[in-house]
Task: structure prediction
Amino acid sequence: MDYSPIISEVFKLWWVIPILLVITIFKTPWYKGVLGESLVMLAGDLRLPEDKYCKLHNVILPTPDGTTQIDHIIVSQFGIFVLETKNMKGWIFGGRNQAQWTQTIFKKSFKFQNPLRQNYKHVKALEAVLDVPPETIHSVVVFVGESKFKTPMPDNVTEGGGYITFIKSFSELVLSEFQVKHILSQIELIRLESNWKTHRQHLHQFKVRADKSAERKCPKCGSRMILRKAKRGVNSGKEFWGCSNFPKCRVVQNIS
Result:
């Protein structure tokens, strides 16, 4: 039997394969995350003038216990804004002081770390390398994607381009033009190059943090972290990592 006509017809449809591949990529969480990040950057470029707001993206900084990756940093005379973006869908429930928030999709619920706590380490890492008053650095969380808040959120937790309104609410000059330029040069000087090596190092740090048997250091002072158990309060009985230099250093970390 001659299969050449069939093969010929199949080859005529070669263009279908790349189209299906592109559609598949568009549906992946990775692509949606990249798209969300791009929309955040685009909104900032359009609504935050470059002559007043300097933007840095994907900043990886060294810390005593490894590295930390900051999605976006916006430096201005009105303050320094540290942005953590979350690409999520469904209903979002949470509060400023809750260790974990809840994502509900249809009838299924999932727990995730309070993004304000996640961004706290980013803020502290930036404080450690910059010679500025801590009150000039602000934490901002930006949810992108098909998500909706179902509980009241703090002003610095926003959806989509709402983070721009929050940033623009700061109108008092707290830094000079010289300080802004110096801050930018400090960050550029210490930030790590975004490549496969630093990315692998960053992923390794996450794995170590989830391993109770792994030795870890305090991100603030570099002392050894010790596994402790809460004795009182709503978290009574739960384990956490505490700095061995307590009470001089009061840094704590969740188990996961």
In short: The mean pLDDT is 81. Residues 70 and 122 are 6 Å apart (CA to CA).
